[in-house]
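Lecture notes, unit on protein representations.

Consider one protein chain, 194 amino acids long.
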Amino acid sequence: MEEKDKEEKVTGENLEPEDKNLEQEDKEEVVGPQEEQQIDEAKNWEEEYNKLLDEHNRLKNQYLRLYADFDNYRKRTQREKEELLKYEGIEFLKKLLPVLDNFERALKEKDTDPQKVIEGVELTHRQLLEILNQHEVKAIEAQGQPFNPELHEALMVEVREDLEENTVIEELVKGYFYKDKVLRPALVKVSKKQ
């Protein structure tokens, strides 16, 4: 009986380390195939989540870089546009400077030779018309034309029986087109029947 008592009194304290491991394994729950599959699926989901998170972060960084690049591009083009508008007439003005020079040369001759002044003014007038023509500024034909309120502005009316009503009798101030737009309407005198 003593031997039986000894066998029964054997506890975890008296077991060898190998035996303790066996006892520990017996206490742990046994994982079944369905639980193993769930664990594998959870690991796969976690891996997939991490991949998607990495992809999300990569795309977010790419978006932020593109956004910054676009913002810089927008600011640069805005500055360039403002500069263009600020100095848009510079080339035109450079072409006008020789016209001014010719006027000044003609005016220097006013006391010594009035004929040179007239020649200088005529030359300068032709030069100015040529520059305007290069920039698609053209005179509006008004004299003898039917009155058109889009092209002409009537300043005076004269009774004329020899002309049709609303015919431009006289051009008081020239009007001009810039390309296909009226830059300034012609100021005219228009005929009227009694």
